[in-house]
Design a protein that fits this description.
The protein is of the alpha/beta class and 373 residues long. Helix content is 43%, strand content 18%. The chain folds into two domains: 3-176, Rossmann fold, CATH 3.40.50; 180-365, Dehydroquinate synthase-like, alpha domain. It is globular, with a radius of gyration of 20 Å. Bound molecules: nicotinamide-adenine-dinucleotide (NAD) and glycine (GLY).
Amino acid sequence: MAEVLHRVGIDLGERSYSIDIGQGLLPAAATFAACPKAAQAVIVTNTTVAPLYARQLQAALAARYAQVRTVVLPDGEAYKDWQTLNLIFDALLQHGCDRKTVLFALGGGVVGDMTGFAAASYMRGVPFVQIPTTLLSQVDSSVGGKTAINHPLGKNMIGAFYQPQLVVCDLDTLATLPERELSAGLAEVIKYGPIADMDFLAWLEHNIDALRQQDKAALAHAVKRSVEIKAWVVGQDEKESGLRAILNFGHTFGHAIEAGMGYGNWLHGEGVGAGMVMAAHLSQRLGLVDAAFVERLTHLIERAGLPTRGPILDTQDNAGAYLEHMRVDKKAEAGDIRFVLIDGPGKAVVRSAPDALVREVINACCAPASVGA
Ligand code: NAD
Ligand code: GLY
């Protein structure tokens, strides 16, 4: 039976919407009763998620839309590119989709980011709904309207800010998620503690095992609190002119790891896990937090099943390789890398740091890679 356990609102004026968190939501027609009216709905998903959930969603949407089509993309971060994005446009045009057509992103962050970007640009904008099916996408990527594809020279470099009409987080879908992916999602949950809410960090310390065991009540709370914090931040700074950058805690190092190792080898959340440890160490070297805080955060990241050390990207000049990747980060200003640092527990700051200090942190925090199934 469909049950909405929590409904979180994101306040963006005429672009406001709800994030529904619950169980049994995906197969229920009632979940989508307030979605925009149109003749056609198009589900965008991938080869892994389609056999699990596309048919159920198709049946639920058939109650509201005369035609429901499905576009199935290849699965993987390596396909978050122009060529794969074009498959969505091909299908929309081949099916004669008009500018009222509603897109439904069914999958993890890759499908969500690509569907959102397709929705932002098809006929200059069609409505879309996020149905995130990974923990990472439920707690982060489906909320806030960042949509993008990767460029070989940088992660999420081509995209748009474009808000969905609704986000539906059905906790039941997490049952089929591989353990490694669940851990990757926990990285984005953990980040909300040090940047905004130390009580939540303490709650995570008590509940990390329950979360890894997929305890439904624990998952529901973790998704709700994460989304509340994200909605609060995005509500104040939708297009990241300042505050929103704090949501990228661990991401500057993390994106360098993802790009440096080749997209898809380290999961996004794994890069963020090791990246948060590196950013915490940098915060400590700048005198913003003490060693006990760094140790506490590192321990939680380890208990979440995530790497706490970055990989070696270049045996000759590892720190140089990290710096090169980090200079194309979107927060960089005139080649000056901007880091999200912890400025005392529960508070984040965005600032630059001397290259020499960053090199020291990278040298202290990297080891030969040991992630993967
Ligand atoms: P993902 O989309 O690659 O999904 C992970 C894997 O799990 C994939 O193989 C996928 O097919 C599979 N999967 C998805 N749902 C499943 C389910 N219920 N059962 C079994 N398998 C399932 O990765 P992700 O971690 O969800 O998202 C990472 C992406 O999100 C990155 O591209 C990152 O840049 C992006 N991201 C975007 C934002 C944003 O604000 N837009 C924020 C954070 C991350
Ligand atoms: N995931 C970072 C953001 O949405 O801003």
